[in-house]
Structure formats: structure tokens, C-alpha cells
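name: query_chain
kind: protein
chains: 1
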Amino acid sequence: MSFPRLPIDDELEIRSLIARYGPFADAGDPRFMDLFTEDATWTRANSPPAALGGSGLPVETLKGRDKLGAMMTEVMRKKFRMRVHHQMTDFYVEPGADGDEAVGYARALITDWRDGPGKIAMFGDYTLRFRRTSTGWRICDAVVRVLPD
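structure:
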């Protein structure tokens, strides 16, 4: 079986970008914003209550790096106190419409350590669009859907 693929250097750069997503997000690290294009969108497509495996946060779409930075401060640093962790897994990437675009898919297992020993808090599916910029590949659109839907 053969799958569409990117040139290896492009795929490795995109994989390196995704490898930083969870650690930067979980730490509320300002470098999280650098993973995205200036005009990027990030969407929480659904939001089951915490009792059903969701975050309880509102469904929303954020646009632009400044909004992503605000989310890091409000959600990761203040609400989750940097004790909720993403484990990005099952990531694959395919070519997009042209050589400067790509589409990726990942799953995220999210653990919560706020009340002592970690526990599985959420499981999400990510759909990501990437764009090549003058400074390398960046995420231009991210959509996360938490299970159950």
C-alpha cells in the first residue's frame, strides 16, 4: 500500500513542530505561539463536560497568535496550573494542495495531575493544516475534537 508523502526534510520539520506542541502548550510556554502562522486559527470543535471526558471549556475558534498567547495564560497557566499534559500520538502528515501546504492528523491523550496522581482526562482528535513560511513550516489551522462527541 502506498500513501501520499512529503519530501523527507519537510516531513521531519513538521514532525519536529508537532513534537513541541504538547510540551509548549502544557507549560504555557510563549514559544507555543511560534508554532503557528500569524493568521492561524485554533478551534475547539466540541466541549463535553469534564464528567464526560471533556474540558468543560467553551467551543471556540481563536484567530491569531495573540489569542493563542492569551489562551496559554488563561487556560494552561491559570485554570490547569500547568498540570494537564498532552501526549500527541498517531501523527501522520500528507501533502496539501501544493508544495507549500500539508495536512496532518494526530490523537492526543490528555492527562490531569491537578489533584495528585495523574489520570486520563480527555482524548482528542486533531486535524492540522500546515503552511511553509519564510521561517519554515508552521501550523495555520488546528481543529481539536474531544471524545465523546
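note: The chain has a mean pLDDT of 90.
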